[in-house]
Amino acid sequence: MWVDPEDDPRETGIETVGEKATLVDYLRRYRLTLEMKCEGLDAEQLARRSVPPSTMSLLGLVRHLAKVEHTWFRRVMGEENIPRLYWSEDDRDLDFNGAVADPVVVADAWATWRREVAHAETYVEAAPSLDATAVHAGETYVLRDVLVHMVEEYARHVGHADLLRECIDGRTGQ
C-alpha cells in the first residue's frame, strides 16, 4: 500500500498558505487516506470487525465519518434541522452496527460519505472566515474549531483504519 511520492494523490505540489488553506489541506489528505485504506476491498472485508466486542470496521468508519461530516457541517454549522445519519433512539451506534457485508450497504456508505464531504467542502469554501459561528442546541460553535476537530477525528480514525486494513490483508502504508 506504500505509494510512490510521485503517484500519491494526497500530494498536490501546491503550497498551502494561511490557516484556512492549511486546515483544509490536512482534512483533504486524511479524507483521501481513508479512501486509500479501503481501496480494493470487498463488502465482507470492509465490514469485518476488529476484535470482539468492538463493532469497529472499515465500513463502520466510513459510515461514522459520513455521520460526523453531516453533523458538523449540516446540523451544527449549517443550522439545518434534519435527522441524524446512522442514528436512532434504539441504536446510537447504528453507523457501526449497521455496517454489514452487503454491497448495497457499502455503495450507500460511500455515496453518503462523498455527498457529505462535498457539502462540507462547499460550506467551508463559502464561509466568510474561520471565525464564522453557528448556534446549535444553545451552544456557539466556531468554524475554526470544527475544522480542527475534523482533522483530529480523521487522524484518530485513519489510525484505526490502518490497523484494520493490516488485519485484513497485511497491507500497511503511509
Automatic annotation (TrEMBL):
InterPro entries: DinB/YfiT-like (IPR034660), MST-like (IPR007061). This is Mini-circle protein. It comes from the Bacteria. The lineage of its organism: Bacteria, Bacillati, Actinomycetota, Actinomycetes, Micrococcales. It comes from Intrasporangium oryzae NRRL B-24470. Gene3D superfamilies: dinb family like domain.
